[in-house]
Amino acid sequence: MLFTNYNNQSDKNNQEFRVKTNDILRDVRKNGKEFDWRGKKIKNVYYADLLRMLHFTKADRVNGCADELVFKVTDEGFLTLHQVWFCKSKLCPLCNWRRSLKMSYQNEEIISEAIKQQPTARFLFLTLTVKNVYDGQELNDTLREMTKAFNRLIKYKAVSKNLVGFMRATEVTVNDKDNSFHPHFHVLIMVKPTYFHGDYYLSQEDWTGYWKKAMQIDYKPIVNVKAVKGKTKKKDDVKGAILETAKYPVKDSDYLTDDVERDAFVVDNLETGLHRKRQIGYGLLFKEIRKKLQLDDVEDGDLKNVGEDEEEVSESAKMVYAKWNNTRKNYFVK
Ligand SMILES: [Zn+2]
Fold first, then answer.
1. Are 247 and 280 in contact (CB under 8 A)?
2. Which residues pair with 286 in a beta bridge?
3. Which of 114, 173, 197, 230 could disulfide-link to 238, CB 3.0 to 4.6 Å?
């Protein structure tokens, strides 16, 4: 039978963790949702195949990502990841899923603390773009220029005087019409309430002008800015809207589409473009809070402990071993 958890059963005392050899792994979370290990691993194998085709030496390493999973079983019958090896490749669908869980968890902590410290502050969502680029090297150079420009932008007096904290995420989308790449920054900005007072307010036009100046370009870049608002003014609604804008920026659906030729082209260029690039950056108050809370690096840090439903389990807790079977395309309990 399949792995099931028993927290809803009436005879809790009699519950027994029933999971047998050759069962298909199922990892149902406390909130009732199921972790899609299989779906992510299938994509990981496809990504590794593309890397092999492109003669990347890391292909085998990527292929071994989360091949074997060791879980401990909590008292309530849930699985908690105990041992695993992740490849940490930039585009790995398994690793990026773990990074996104970790980032959501951390952002919740950071934003809660920031609001606690400065309850009257407001949030903006800023998108900074440049012209599309056509290959990986150009992408890499452009991202470097954008990072430099961003650091200039936040130092401009008009920006810095109301700036409290920021979180910057780098996203690169693909335009299939002309095979170009669109690098852009999504920035969540926390500002003092005075930002909205008369002279201090920056319009979209103002932000566009400052970004153009910071990028030192001769065309008008597309910039978008909006205040983050909840559906209602309730605190939780506003916080929900803030967190919604601050998600991990890599979506595997952008580069793993099953069109092998197209995906190989995209992966090849993104590997070059994102090489040694950090895609997440925190600044000012958010950075201070990260330090205070001792939050681990989202991109290169530990991907086993992502803060999601983590519980202490006893030394003697039961273990579940699962291994990926590439012929049968699933994880099976050993
Ligand atoms: Zn991986």
1. no
2. none
3. 230
